[in-house]
Amino acid sequence: MLTLHHLEYSQSFRILWLLEALGADYALKSYDRNADDNLAPDEYKALSPLGTAPVVTDGDLVLCESNAIIDYILDSYPDSALRPAAGHKDRARHLFWFHASPGSLMSLQGIAMVLGLLEMRSPWPISSLLKAVFGQVRTIFLNPRSSALIDLMEKDLGKQPFFGGDNLTAADITLVYPMYAALDKGQFEGRTNILAWFARIEALDSFKSARAKDDRERIIFKF
C-alpha cells in the first residue's frame, strides 16, 4: 500500500489533498517539525532521498518531489479528471500551470527567500551593500516576473474557475503550496479572481477532508 509520509506545514499537504480527491486507499504517517530549528526530524530526513517533503513509499519504492509523486499516483488512475488527457480542451492549460508551480512561482519565491536571508544574516557593512544589490535584483527581475505571473493567474481564473480549466486538476493541487505562501505575504490583494479560487478550493470536500487529516490550526506553509 502507498504511504504518504506527511510533514506538518509542508509541501506534502499537496499529496494529501491529491489522495483525498482521488478517494485513494493509502496509509498516512505524520511527522512534526523539530521545535528548536523548525526542520524535519531525523527520522523523516533519513527516509527521504533528499531529506525533503513530500515523500511516499510504495513497497520498496521511495519517491520524493511533489510533481513526480503526483504523476506516479495518477498513473494508477488513468481515467481521472485530475489529469486531462491528450486532446482534452483543458490539456494545455493544465500542463502550463502544473509546471508553472515549481518552474516559475516557487522558483521566484525561493530566490526572494534566499535574498532575504542573506540580507538578514550578513554582517554590516556587507549587509548594506547586499541590500543595494538585491534591491536592484528585485526591481529588475523578481518584481516584474512575479507581477506578470500573478497578472496571468488573475486573467486565467477570470476565464475558467480552476487553474486546470473548468474542473479541479493536479495543476490546482500542486499550486496550493506556493499560492498560500504568497497569500500569507499579501501578494494577492485586490486580485478578486485569485481570491475566489481560494474560496472555491476550500469549499471542496476533498480539501476539507485533507485539512481534517492535516489537523493544523492554520493553512500556512513553510519553506
Q: What is the CATH C level class of the largest domain, in words? A: Mainly Alpha
> What is the level-2 CATH architecture name of the largest domain?
Up-down Bundle
| DSSP strand count | 4
Gross morphology: globular
Discrete helix count: 8
**Estimated share of beta-strand residues:** 5-15%
> SS-based structural class?
alpha+beta
Low-confidence stretches: none
- Annotated CATH topology of the largest domain: Glutathione S-transferase Yfyf (Class Pi), Chain A, domain 2
Span between termini: 29 Å
Reading side by side through the largest sheet, how are the strands ordered? 2-1-3-4
Topology diagram in text:
Elements: E1 2-7, H1 12-22, E2 27-31, H2 42-47, E3 55-58, E4 61-64, H3 66-74, H4 91-121, H5 126-159, H6 170-184, H7 192-202, H8 205-214
Parallel strand pairs: 1-2
Antiparallel strand pairs: 1-3, 3-4
Question: Mind explaining what this structure looks like?
Answer:
- It is a single chain.
- The chain is an alpha+beta fold.
- The protein folds into two domains: about 1-85 and about 210-215, 3-Layer(aba) Sandwich (Glutaredoxin), CATH 3.40.30.10; about 90-205, Glutathione S-transferase Yfyf (Class Pi), Chain A, domain 2 (Up-down Bundle).
- Helix content is about 55%, strand content about 10%.
- It is built from eight helices and four strands; from the N terminus they run E-H-E-H-E-E-H-H-H-H-H-H.
- It has helices at about 10-20, 40-45, 65-75, 90-120, 125-160, 170-185, 190-200, 205-215; strands spanning about 1-5, 25-30, 55-60, 60-65.
- A four-stranded mixed beta sheet has the order 2-1-3-4, with helices on one face.
- A hairpin with a 2-residue loop joins strand 3 (about 55-60) and strand 4.
- Helix 1 packs parallel to helix 3.
- The protein is globular and about 55 Å long.
- The two termini are about 30 Å apart.
